[in-house]
From TrEMBL:
Protein family per UniProt: Belongs to the ComF/GntX family.
PANTHER family named in the record: DNA UTILIZATION PROTEIN YHGH
Name of protein: ComF family protein
Source organism superkingdom: Bacteria
SUPFAM superfamilies assigned: PRTase-like
Amino acid sequence: MRGWWQELAGLVAPVDCAGCGLPRSVLCGECGAELWGRPARRVRPDPVPAGLPPVYAAARYEGGVRSALIAHKERGGLALADPLGAALAGAVGAAGRSGAGWDVRGRRGPLLLVPVPSARSAVAGRGQDAGRRLALAAARALRGSGTSARVAAVLRLRRPVLDQSGVDARRRVANVAGAMEAVRGAERLWRSGGPVVLVDDLMTTGASLAEAARAVTAGDGRVVAAAVIAAAPRTFGNHRN
């Protein structure tokens, strides 16, 4: 029940920049530059979890970008979905322009953006599915730029997982190993649709993205890349761009 009144409040009340607090600005120019000011880049955690596809990030997870992501996900900053979704679309586009991308001319259907699933309890507590909202905003931005794309929210958690924050890379992999699965009927979507790009708001160790890739592949889906809005700063130095 939280979502509708938060969205209404965003329409009628002045808001401050989610990145730095500048009055009457959902996202100020300076914080927006942190998000969109540089081309999205390939990022690589260390160590790399088995099965991780090529990952592209729009920005580093620091400063105003970090504050904006937290505001959207944890504090219901719904007005941030479109600017954050545009950044995510930029990361998807960077994956498509790389050697790890997809053959636009040869694919059968639209590009499928598959969000990494959140626990039901987390979605209920926040009053929104933040990952799906960002994926939908990214798909709109991609279609607006001429790329056929749709969201396929077909992954779910089949067992409880612990909160990943504060857990090292090895334990994160163990925490999510085998935890995701595709819903019934996803196989038909893979056969009729296009290639899959996994999308999420943040990558730190890559464990969740690797598990999502395993779940899609197990159902005969074709994962070509992953895209995130932000990644841990250390991951930007582990791949030559």
